[in-house]
User: Fold ANTAR domain-containing protein from Bordetella genomosp. 8.
Amino acid sequence: MPPEHIDVAEILALFGCAADEASRLRMHAELDAIQKCMLLRMRTPLRPQEFAKAKAMADASISAREILAAVDAVLSTSSRVAR
Assistant:
């Protein structure tokens, strides 16, 4: 889907965020916290079920970061066009 067709507010709502800069920054911070937690957990031995859960969380974090990058691109393009 081309970036111009992304409904930024709808995407942010999927994450429980408003379509404003503060919410976007808060989402970045939350994803960073998830990543730090995962890095800490990966230094400890995990049982198979813990590893499966950690992998699922890592995959979700990667997907969320990709979505956020797309949203950031749309927002930065929109702000440049508005100027």
Summary: The mean pLDDT is 75. The radius of gyration is 16 Å. The longest helix spans residues 48-82. Helices lie at 8-14, 21-42, 48-82.
